[in-house]
Specification:
The complex is a heterodimer. By secondary structure, chain A is mainly beta. Chain A has a single domain (86-302), classed as Beta Barrel (Porin). Chain A contains no helices and twelve strands. Chain A has strands at 24-31, 34-41, 86-97, 101-109, 112-122, 125-137, 140-161, 171-196, 201-226, 233-259, 264-279, 286-302. In chain A, strands 3-6-7-8-9-10-11-12 form an eight-stranded antiparallel β-barrel. Chain B is an alpha+beta fold. Chain B has twelve helices and 25 strands. Chain B has helices at 2-23, 44-59, 126-137, 238-245, 267-287, 316-323, 358-371, 380-401, 449-470, 489-503, 510-525, 530-541, and strands at residues 35-41, 63-70, 77-86, 89-101, 104-114, 148-153, 159-168, 173-179, 185-190, 194-200, 206-214, 217-219, 221-222, 229-233, 258-259, 263-264, 299-303, 326-328, 333-336, 350-351, 414-415, 420-421, 427-428, 472-473, 480-481. In chain B, strands 1, 2, 3, 4, 5, 6, 7, 8 and 9 form a nine-stranded mixed beta sheet that branches. A five-stranded mixed beta sheet of chain B has the order 15-12-11-10-16. In chain B, helix 8 (380-401) packs across helix 9 and helix 11 packs antiparallel against helix 12. Chain B is elongated and about 95 Å long. Chain B starts with a helix and ends with a helix. The chains are: A mainly beta, B alpha+beta.
Chain lengths: 303, 545
């Protein structure tokens, strides 16, 4: 239906920039401290509807607009076709939700196995990312993305602490530990599909395989106090270990940009990623889900 | 122009000084004042400066090498420990560890004390200090524990010339620093480092052992319970055992049962040590009692008072006391018989280490409780009641920790069944007559042996306890008793314990014991309770009115 709207690209003046593109280099360096983006577009080509001059109404379409020969048979909506060479996105935002995990540690206290079970919930944390792609076919681009998410973990800890004098008389203990660190880094190979939503509004729908690496604190032992007759223990905290690992998964999302100029815009991104890995803080491996739902705002560059 | 140059110069000079303060490490020798200097140098200027300083201090006699050991994990590396000295006296806690690699210093860590201005001529000698500690703790200090003159940094600041002495007291392994000028205690701390090990008991069961780590060796000193609980291994030295029991000598750290890896294999020591602790726990949990004297008196167990292999040549008195018996020697000291070597028998029975029976251990410790409470005179009826309470506590502890049943390590009403084979025991509370003991007052022993039959007539009160718990019919009187049931045994235990320890006088009789237990039942559970009824029926069944 978009192709039947009179103010849409079919009646606008077509802007065609040089077709030949030499080299596109986009690099993004993302760090915990901030985001730096280097984008160099030696040329760009975007076929985009142009508004009529002020005070003029759009002329009626006398005939189908001139299109490159390769696109003559394209349906009307294809007039929103993306003719650029690529894009680069840098963004900063937050991870809104992420799957928790459970971990277990078994270690020796009082000559017997003590157990710790931690149910971790992942809090909201800042996310920094960069994506880029090169158009490879029609509105489809192939590229990649990087993302770093820092979040804190809150743990609900339960455990069993053996009795110092008797076997099989462990004391139950529970507590919480908040604010444990977690940093995820995502690297993804992404296919992006470009959609022009409005005159200055573009959208990319993207997705692809991802590798997510995580470095996080994990509970290893329960700190406690006890006193005679040792029938109970008091939870005072946990000991942690910084553990890292990674796993392959998927990522996908949408990115909507409002163009401030032909090349530069601002936009928002909604991304969901998922992978899993196995981390071993002591001797017992724990399956840990990675990724989550992130939203971010940032700069968009088309070239 | 001149006016601009001068401020710039001042600014540059100031900046340089500030930068130097931050960037250039202060040379160790430049640090004046008094106090504790932590040394932690592993690279750069700090390392070179401290390495040179250590060398200077060695030359000046302020540091003396205690020895150098090769690194066990990195070939070529070695570690030298250096003690700090002040005018020839060691500074307690002043120590530097220097790591070298082929003669090249790799790291220097340590603590060096500065500003020491105490004199090093003591007013007291070492023996004076030892005597002061002995007077304070009651622990005799032998010649092997020569007090060391040291300079000790004290918590209030400054330094004191003091004698350092580590002694095993009744409840601690304590380190004393006796001021060499005044004789006061400049500093004291506990050197107990608690640990939990495991060990195989006499019946090959694995149990936890609360121990203390000392100089890399685990000692049978329980530092986790309120009282100190020691288990000494006298290594078959009977004369030393007897001298200790007679107060002629004190035992020291070298007498404490020990194990290198805390995986204990001396079954007699394991059970003596563990069961002493379990009995303390029972008394605490059941009666809110804190040990033998209710003041956490130290509990001392002695194992291996004799050598098993000497049993066949041992005099009969020694055989009966130190091989085939266990006894409470007063002052919280228990001695456990060695038993006989495997295969050897006497009276048709084999005998294992006596500490291997939890009821035996608890029985002996209960004598200590009696000592500090009613102090029932150990002859005639009061003596029988004394023995009965020990049997009652022994059996109650057994039921507290073991499942009811028959056989080794099962809770029953036999005494000492876990240390003899084939099946048998010393006494039976369920059926005293099975071991020749009376189950009825009319059958009590009235002769002079065994202090008037204290180990025999105890069967009357023991059986009353049994009937009050389990119920049943007395074989002599034929009277039935409706017991409170095994699930409520704690009520009968509390009633008897309260009556025997707190209500009875030292010269009590069976009749008084009956009245006291009924009073205790009424006090604890009200008049007409099932406990009072069961106890009344029980005493009637055994012929005590």
């Amino acid at each position: 239906m978009r192709g039947q709207q009179p103010a849409r690209p079919l009646v606008g003046a077509r802007v065609t920039l040089r077709r030949a593109v030499t080299t596109v280099v986009a690099a993004a360096a993302v760090s915990m401290a901030g985001v730096t983006v280097f984008a160099q577009a030696q040329s760009q080509e975007v076929e985009r509807p142009q508004p009529p001059p002020a005070g003029q109404s759009a002329p009626p379409p006398a005939k189908p607009p001139q299109r490159p020969s390769a696109r003559k048979s394209a349906p009307p909506q294809a007039a929103a076709a993306w003719r650029g060479r690529g894009f680069a996105v840098v963004s900063a935002g937050a991870q809104l939700a992420a799957p928790g995990y459970a971990s277990t540690s078994v270690y020796t206290v009082h000559a017997e196995d003590a157990t710790l079970t931690a149910d971790a919930s992942i809090g909201i944390g800042p996310a920094f990312g960069a994506r880029g792609g090169v158009r490879v076919w029609k509105n489809v681009a192939l590229g990649g993305g990087l993302e770093i998410v820092t979040a804190s973990q809150d743990l609900a800890v339960t455990g069993r602490i053996p009795h110092p004098f008797q076997f099989n008389q462990s004391r139950e203990v529970e507590g919480t530990a908040d604010g444990l660190e977690r940093v995820e880094a995502l690297v993804a190979l992404e296919v992006s599909w470009y959609v022009a939503l409005a005159r200055r509004v573009d959208m990319f729908v993207f997705g692809g395989p991802a590798y997510i690496n995580v470095r996080q604190d994990m509970a290893t032992r329960i700190r406690f106090t006890e006193s005679y007759p040792y029938d109970t223990v008091t939870f005072t905290g946990i000991e942690t270990a910084s553990v890292s690992g990674g796993g392959f998964g998927v990522t996908g999302g949408i990115d909507i940009a409002f163009l401030l100029s032909k090349r530069v815009g601002i936009g928002g991104e909604l991304r969901y990623s998922h992978a899993s890995t196995t981390l071993t803080p002591l001797e017992q491996p724990s399956a840990v889900a990675l990724g989550g739902l992130q939203v971010a705002l940032g700069a968009r560059i088309l070239f | 122009m001149q006016r601009f140059v001068r401020p710039v110069r001042w600014a540059c000079a100031t900046l340089a000084v500030v930068a130097a303060a931050f960037l250039i490490p202060v040379h160790p020798s430049a640090q004046g004042g008094s106090g504790r200097r932590a040394v932690s140098a592993a690279d750069g200027r700090d390392l070179r400066a401290w390495d040179a300083q250590v060398t200077r201090m060695i030359r000046g006699g302020e540091l003396r090498s205690r020895g150098e050991e090769p690194d066990l994990l990195m070939a070529g590396r070695s570690h030298e420990r250096l003690d700090q000295y002040h005018d020839g006296v060691r500074v307690f806690g002043g120590e530097v560890v220097r790591q070298t690699d082929g003669g090249q210093t790799v790291s220097v860590f340590g603590v060096v004390y500065t500003g020491i201005r105490v004199g090093t001529d003591p007013a007291l000698d070492a023996q004076d200090a030892a005597d002061i500690v002995t007077e304070m703790t009651g622990a005799a200090v032998g010649p092997g524990l020569e007090p060391e003159l040291v300079v000790v940094p004290v918590d209030e600041g400054g330094y004191v010339l003091a004698y350092r002495l580590r002694v095993l007291t009744a409840d601690d392994l304590a380190v004393f620093f006796i001021d060499a000028a005044t004789g006061s205690v400049a500093l004291r701390y506990s050197d107990l480092q608690c640990a939990v090990g495991t060990g195989q008991g006499v019946l090959n069961d694995t149990k936890k052992v609360s121990t203390t780590l000392q100089n890399g060796t685990h000692l049978a000193i329980d530092g986790m319970r309120p009282p100190a609980i020691y288990t000494y291994d006298l290594k078959g030295n009977l004369s030393r055992t007897q001298m200790y029991l007679n107060g002629l000598i004190t035992l020291d750290e070298s007498d404490v049962a020990a194990d290198a890896d805390n995986q204990w294999t001396d079954a007699a020591a394991v059970d003596a040590h563990a069961y002493a602790g379990w009995t303390y726990d029972y008394l605490y949990k059941r009666f809110n009692r804190r040990g033998l004297d209710n003041r956490d008196l130290a509990m001392t167990s002695i194992v291996h008072p004799v050598r098993r292999e000497d049993w066949s040549t041992a005099p009969s008195q020694v055989l009966n006391l130190y091989y085939l018996n266990a006894f409470y020697a007063g002052r919280g000291i228990m001695v456990y018989g060695e038993g006989l070597p495997p295969g050897a028998t006497t009276g048709g029975r084999q005998w294992n280490y006596f500490s291997g029976a939890i009821d035996v251990v608890a029985h002996e410790l209960a004598h200590g409780v009696t000592d500090y409470t009613s102090n029932l005179i150990y002859r005639n009826e009061s003596g029988a009641l004394n023995e009965a309470l020990s049997d009652i506590v022994g059996t109650s502890v057994e039921f507290f920790y073991q499942q009811a049943g028959a056989g080794y390590m099962k809770a029953d009403y036999l005494l000492g069944e876990d240390v003899t084979a084939p099946s048998g025991a010393f006494r039976s509370m369920a059926n005293p007559q099975a071991y020749g003991d009376p189950d009825h007052y009319s059958k009590r022993y009235l002769g002079p042996d065994d202090n008037g039959g204290v180990h025999s007539n105890s069967g009357i009160a023991n059986h009353a306890f049994y009937l009050a718990v389990e119920g049943g019919i007395n074989r002599t009187s034929g009277l039935p008793v409706q017991g409170v049931g095994a699930a409520n045994r704690d009520r009968i235990e509390k009633t008897f314990f309260r009556a025997f320890t707190q209500l009875l006088p030292a010269n009590a009789t069976f009749s008084m014991a009956r009245a006291a237990t009924l009073q205790a039942a009424r006090d604890l559970y009200g008049p007409g309770s099932d406990v009072e009824r069961a106890i009344e029926q029980a005493w009637a069944a055994v012929g005590v009115s």
